[in-house]
Write a structure and sequence with these properties.
With 398 residues, this protein is an alpha/beta fold. It is 39% helix and 13% strand. Helix 5 packs parallel to helix 6, helix 5 (120-135) packs across helix 13 (359-366) and helix 8 crosses helix 9. The N and C termini lie far apart (60 Å).
């Protein structure tokens, strides 16, 4: 790595340096190296009123060495492979670390986000939609979280196989941790699969554990990479709505899948549609929505603060304080004990909603054995909470 790239990473990792301050320093001093020299010599006003503490050179050298040992590479603004749409946003990350195929970031990118405690029906829809889009050349971007993100990545990877020749899209995952940290842990194999057959991105150094405050920053990258953001099942005040709001801020299309008004997990999507988001029911709808995108921002009334725009209050911009981001189902009852039986029942209850879903899909979504699922369904039916439908489908009673 040449010295100027090293200086860029060091300045970007310095305390109190973000995208805005970094660009101010470059405008004033001409290069990252010159800015670091001015800061280290205490030149008046070098920090623009901020106390900037340069990152330790040895720590940066160790980060770079560790990154290369992980078979990862850096993507810096101005590089040929830096994502073109991401480069357009004002708070584009100063440093990206990647594993996988960087060419995917220059394709037709659509973000797909949604609830972590998503219903089985929503996960099935997201997986099918992502597969269809990937097979038609769209690259699906998501955040590797539980629920909709996981379903979207699986579907997009399957779409690579379904696509004709080299026309298939693929998937990009943006994570809120180091490139070597899998979160949630159960997605470790999926993360590795994406690194080999898609593109894995992060702005954090290797070894960085995920923290709640990193997730909104991760969301801005997901929205900034993509020409459109599609929300599949999201409750009000969810992280998915943060991504939708950011997409609107960046002048990108906001798309949403409608859901049952009886399911609180669908209220966020329904509100988005009511306030101007494009209603999506199939891959054809998505292809039509993105067909006119020419790479330029276009403000659609859904940006934060825009006239007639979707109003997000401060609570909706915040991620949960805890890193355990899976919240209980709106249908679940309080559990006095955390025994394995109660946890299994809660997992099944969380996957169910007012939309009918097959028992096979429920087994697949929960990862539980068929006997456990059938026993739990029998208990729910005896309690009068389960409704059975044709085709061996079930739903919760409203």
């Amino acid at each position: 790595m040449d010295q100027e790239r090293f200086n860029h990473i060091r300045l970007a990792r310095s305390q109190n340096v973000g995208p805005v301050v970094y660009r101010q320093l470059l405008r004033r001093f001409g290069s990252a190296g010159a800015a670091l020299k001015a800061i280290s010599t205490g030149k008046d006003g070098a920090g623009g009123g901020r106390t900037i503490i340069p990152a330790d050179e040895r720590e940066i050298a160790q980060e770079i060495e560790r990154t290369y040992r992980l078979d990862a590479q850096y993507m810096l603004p101005g590089d040929m492979d830096y994502p073109p749409l991401l480069a357009q946003i004002a708070d584009a990350p100063l440093v990206l670390i990647r594993r996988g195929n960087p060419a995917l970031a220059a394709g037709r990118l659509v973000a797909m986000v949604g609830a972590r405690n998503a219903s089985a029906a929503a996960c099935r829809f997201a997986r099918t939609l992502a597969r269809d889009l990937s097979a038609r050349g769209v690259v699906v971007v998501s955040g590797l979280a539980r629920g909709i993100d996981t379903a979207a990545h699986h579907g997009a990877l399957a779409g690579i196989v379904d696509g004709a020749n080299d026309a298939a899209g693929g998937t990009i995952s943006v994570i809120a941790s180091g490139i070597d940290i899998a979160y949630p842990p159960e997605n470790a194999a999926l993360q590795e699969n994406i690194a080999h057959h898609g593109l894995l991105l992060t702005e954090h150094p290797p070894g960085t554990e995920p923290k709640a405050r990193y997730f909104p920053n991760r969301n801005r990258i997901i929205a900034g990479l993509s020409c459109a953001t599609l929300v599949v099942e999201a409750a009000p005040q969810s992280g998915s709505l943060i991504t939708a709001r950011m997409a609107g801020d960046y002048g990108r299309d906001v798309l949403a899948v409608p859901g049952s008004p009886l399911d609180p997990r669908a209220h966020g999507c329904n509100d988005l549609i009511r306030n101007g988001a494009t209603l999506i029911q199939s891959a054809d709808d998505v292809m039509e929505a993105i067909s006119s995108f020419n790479g330029a921002a276009r403000y659609n009334g859904l940006s934060h603060g825009g006239q007639g725009g979707f109003a997000f209050d401060e609570a909706e911009r915040k991620e949960p304080d805890s890193i355990t981001l899976v919240q209980g189902s709106p249908h679940a009852q309080p559990r006095p004990h955390s025994s394995p039986e109660n946890e299994e029942a809660a997992s099944i209850l969380s996957a169910l909603g007012p939309v009918p879903v097959s028992v096979d899909e429920l087994i697949r979504q929960t990862g539980l054995d068929p006997a456990t699922v059938q026993m739990a369904l029998m208990d729910l039916e005896m309690a009068g909470r389960l409704e059975r439908h044709s085709g061996a489908r079930i739903s919760l009673k409203p």
